[in-house]
Structure formats: C-alpha cells, structure tokens
Amino acid sequence: MMREQFETTKLHKGNGKGFFFIGCDHDKPPAPTQNLLLAALPHSDYERLLPYLTGVPLMAGSTLHGAGNKENYLYFLVEGRVSRIHVLADGAQAEFAVTGREGVIGLPAILGGESMPSYAIISESGYAYRIESSRLKTMLEENGAVVQLLLRYTQALMTQIAQNCVCNRHHTIEQQLCRWLLNSLDRTDTNDLGVTHEAIAALMGVRRESVTESMSYLKKRGVIQPSRGHVVVLDRQRLEASVCECYSVVKREYDRLLPEQFLKLS
Predict the structure, then answer these.
(1) Looking at the structure, do residues 42 and 139 belong to the same domain, yes or no?
(2) Do 79 and 60 meet the contact criterion of CB atoms below 8 Å apart?
(3) Helix (H/G/I), strand (E/B), else coil: 142
(4) pLDDT tens digits, 149-208
(5) What CATH number should be reported for the domain holding residue 234?
C-alpha cells in the first residue's frame, strides 16, 4: 500500500465530517488577525500582506502538503488544527508536531528547502489564510520584522518537535496522552474534542488499547469524560498535574520567543 493511500485510510472516517474532529461551517469567515502571527505584525506590515491572503476552509482528513511535495503556499491558521505526520515504509505513522492559530504551515518554502519528507494533515476542521510562498519570500527580503517573527516561531516549533521526541521515548502513554489533549485544548475554544481513541492512537503512534486504558484511568479520576467519538475535558488543572514536564517546556518557549499575543494561547 502506498503511503498516500495508507494515510487516507487512517485519517478519513468517511462520515461526511472529515477525520476525527467535527467540521466547521462559516457564514462569515474569521478575521486573519485571529492567527497570532498575523496579529503580532506591525500594522503597516500586516496591511502590506493583507491583499495577498486568500481565505480557505480546512476539512479534517485532507492533506495540505504531501511528503516531499513542493510547498507552494503558506497557511496561517485562524481555526482548526494541523498535524505534521511522518509515515514509514511499512505504514506506521506518528505525529511529531501540531499547529493551530498560533502558527503557520509551509515554512520549508521560505527556509530554502521547499519540502519535507512528512505530511501536513488537517486534524481539526477550521479555516486558514494562505499566501503564495514566492510572494512572501519577496516580502521577507524587504522586511526584517516579518523575518524575525517567523524565525522566532521556527525556533519555538523546533523546540516542540525535539521535546515530543524525548517525551515519546521516555514518558508513559498516559503522560503522552495528557500532553496530546492539552495541546489540542490550547488550539480550540471548547473542552469537547471530537476525537476517537483510534485516531489518537494513530497520531501518537501507539496501540489503541493503550490509549483506551489511559483514558479509563483519567475518567476514573474525574479528569475527562470520553464517549463515542468525543473526549470532554472536565478538569484542566488535574490534566496539567498529570502531564509530564514536556508540555510546560514547550509552552514556556512559545511564551518566551513570541509576542504577548501568545500568552493568550492557553
């Protein structure tokens, strides 16, 4: 089975609502400044960028960038969630980074590499504003403020990826699950996550039974209330008390490197 075929099988449930998060409808698209990077730009720089931003809906289960594909656009998320996933030759997969309204998808296009050997999969339906990478690269050559902001975001993203690797190697499934749930909460406005055990297991790269066991333990402690296709977080404080230090390490780095708008993320 080819990687693209495997990915579609794993990440799309065929229920008309995408993968594992409930879809979003937009009578009126959200403003670009709901993306925290765009909101952090000086007003003059934002106004220069605005005419080249195109609003696009994000359907859960769809692919923004395939493995090795040239990334011709950058997507500034204003709602929803995108998972960076690596798929091995045998079909095994794991999420190594997650992006929401705090960030942008498509950085290789402006860093010089143009592509990555991984997928960018929409894991929560939402909305984004995209810009042609060639257009943004031209603007970066003329504007140091935008360059510095994106470089700081890239460093924060690198911290997330590195910490996830350490966490997956050294911490328990329960701790990893808590980190995953907190990362999802930080990138949505609700405590009701429309997600299945199977989907979480696929993204974490672990057995579904391990996720179910950890979910049951958290439920007994009154932290979450799982149901078919949903996980409601009842007590965020207890969830944070149950997670390993990896969550706070990454959160502090985002707060340190990026403007004060990011303090509102959690």
Answers:
(1) yes
(2) no
(3) helix
(4) 999 999 999 999 999 999 999 999 999 999 999 999 998 889 999 899 999 999 999 999
(5) 1.10.10.10
215 three-state secondary structure? helix
- C-alpha–C-alpha distance, residues 90 and 127, integer Å: 32
Cα(129)–Cα(127) distance, integer angstroms: 7
**Burial class of residue 146, CB neighbours in 10 A (0-12, 13-18, 19+):** buried
Residues 52-100: tens digit of each pLDDT: 999 999 999 899 999 999 889 999 999 999 999 999 899 888 999 999 9
Q: Could you tell me if 178 and 221 lie in one domain? A: yes
Residue 49 lies in domain? 3-144
DSSP string, 78-130: EEEEEEEEEE-TTS-EEEEEEE-TT-EE-THHHHT----SSEEEEEEEEEEEE
The pTM (predicted TM-score) of the whole model is 0.83
Ordered alpha helix ranges (H), the chain: 3-11, 36-40, 43-49, 108-111, 133-142, 144-170, 173-186, 197-204, 208-220, 236-242, 246-257
168: phi then psi, degrees, rounded to nearest 5:
-65, -25
Residues 118 and 178 in one domain: no
Count: domains in the chain: 2
